[in-house]
Design the sequence.
């Protein structure tokens, strides 16, 4: 396990291994998510009270779920950045922060669309909605801070500290509906109890959730590969990758690399 | 793990724990402001201020909804199965509003302990089920009632 961990320190090794996983993650992820969405939107039964409008959960729940998971993953990567100074951990944070922001926005947006007909309002400052909005601002803050500091090493450390400070928000989001009175309902899915939803509703939902996680794996690796290439653009292996066969002409290769 | 990294990791964990405690205490201190609404027991116990804009929430009591036939005025009782409070409202109620459903109302308490609502929102619970299942459940509970109401839980 430690050997794998230390190998991750090598950008070149990461670039190769990521490329091998990516087609599988994208293929299976899209297959599961799309079949879950088609099943959920087209074939799952109506809800007895809300009718068809409940179907927004097939988008809302997976995006909200993943938005919080991505932040937790970023926090773990932040610890790795601070303690082990591994560059790849910072590459991960930088690559997935915009993805997390987009997912959080989608969760808020679909929630608002659902809240208007169901609750009678599209926004209310209750604990769940507000803490989720804070998560969006944390993601945007991480993105802004990362690009505001020119020096890569100090940017990595500052971003890691911000991510770790923000991680206290995650349990607040999760338990806000239990700790306080909120308009948002408590969780339908709990680890310890049966879901308060029949299988013909939660099975498609689970498909979308698992599919979206796999899709996230793909987009994270894809964006990390791009970031690794950008950071290692002057190194030999990237040069070889970009100009296959052009190795003999060292001077022109170097000139082109500066232009990239 | 080498000692320098171990020390760094424990510093990070220590700071995170401290931060969590600080945020925990702060949210605990502000809990009444973070709570979206007062429940009927708090209102009955005099915890809610009179003539100040607040929110009240709970379940709409079965059989308590009375509509004025000539206007949009409606009156109902909101309960948490311990106490209840009468809510007066004039306007259009959300689709999900029904007896036995959760609501959150914005408004103020008048001197007589009635809640004058300006806005009523429906609160959805975490239950989802197909219409057939809910009909079957209703039939089953109606049958249980015929056989003897004393076995039903008393709230």
Sequence:
């Amino acid at each position: 396990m430690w050997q794998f961990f230390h190998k991750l320190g090598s950008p070149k090794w990461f670039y190769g291994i990521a490329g091998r996983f990516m087609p599988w993650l994208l293929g299976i992820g899209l297959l599961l998510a799309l079949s879950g969405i088609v099943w959920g939107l087209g074939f799952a039964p109506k809800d007895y009270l809300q009718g068809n409008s409940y179907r927004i959960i097939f988008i809302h729940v997976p995006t909200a779920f993943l938005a919080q998971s991505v932040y937790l993953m970023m926090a773990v990567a932040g610890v790795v950045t601070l303690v082990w100074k591994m560059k790849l951990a910072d590459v991960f944070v930088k690559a997935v922060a915009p993805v997390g922001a987009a997912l959080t926005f989608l969760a808020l947006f679909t929630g608002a669309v659902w809240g208007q007909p169901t609750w009678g309002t599209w926004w209310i400052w209750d604990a769940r909605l507000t803490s989720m909005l804070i998560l969006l601002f944390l993601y945007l803050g991480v993105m802004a801070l990362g690009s505001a500091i020119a020096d890569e090493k100090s940017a990595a450390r500052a971003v890691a500290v911000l991510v770790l400070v923000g991680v206290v928000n995650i349990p607040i989001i999760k338990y806000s509906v239990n700790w306080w009175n909120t308009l948002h309902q408590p969780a339908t899915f709990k680890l310890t109890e049966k879901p308060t939803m029949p299988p013909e509703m939660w099975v498609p939902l689970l498909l979308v959730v698992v599919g979206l996680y796999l899709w996230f794996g793909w987009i994270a690796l894809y964006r990390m590969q791009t970031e690794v290439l950008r950071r290692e653009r002057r190194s030999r292996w990237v040069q070889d990758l970009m100009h296959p066969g052009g190795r003999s002409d060292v001077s022109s290769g170097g000139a082109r690399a500066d232009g990239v | 793990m080498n000692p320098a990294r171990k020390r760094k990791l424990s510093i990070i964990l220590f700071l995170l724990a401290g931060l969590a405690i600080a945020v925990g205490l702060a949210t605990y201190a502000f809990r009444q402001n973070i709570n979206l609404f007062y429940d009927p027991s708090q209102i009955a116990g005099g915890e809610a201020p009179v003539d100040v804009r607040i929110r009240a929430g709970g379940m709409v009591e079965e059989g308590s909804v009375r509509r004025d036939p000539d206007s949009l005025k409606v009156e109902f009782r909101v309960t948490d199965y311990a106490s209840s409070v009468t809510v007066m409202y004039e306007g259009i109620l959300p689709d999900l509003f029904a007896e036995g459903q959760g609501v959150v109302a914005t408004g103020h308490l008048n001197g007589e302990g009635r809640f004058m609502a300006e806005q009523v929102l429906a609160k959805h619970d975490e239950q989802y089920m197909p219409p057939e299942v809910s009909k079957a459940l209703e039939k089953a509970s109606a049958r249980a009632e015929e056989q003897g109401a004393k076995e039903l839980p008393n709230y």
